Fold this protein.
Amino acid sequence: MRLKTLSLALLPLAIAAAAPAFAEDVTADLQISAQVLPGCELTVAGSTQLELGALYQGQGVQSPSGVAARCNTGTAYTIAAGDGLGRGLNPEFAGFRTLTGDRFQLPYRLERGLGVGLEWGQGTDVFAGIGDGEWQYHDYSVSFYAVNQAPNGVYADTVEVTLTY
């Protein structure tokens, strides 16, 4: 009887081991897509703490490292310079940007490049490029006028620079 009980107890294990395993694979596709949108970054190095002697003759003062744009490959861009806060304040230089001080308005021009005399502003007077994913640098210079008429002091202006893509 003991043998019969042991045999009956092992019977379910024997049946389970002898039964075929039915395993199926179920698959589904994972779809991935992305759209790369135009994008750009802008850095601007200002020209600050410049020291001008009274005999300065208006030659361009080079910017420390210009302006730089980094845009996705194929993205066309322009970089424009605004008028500043004091454009036209000096009546003798009505169309010029102006650094303001306590007792005088010091006229100046922003120029594209170094000493080439091309205005940097808006419209057609902008830097332009097509992005390649790397930083692209554009040099600018500042030319000051009537420095010999300016009293000693500190003069300043703020110009908004806009990258459009």
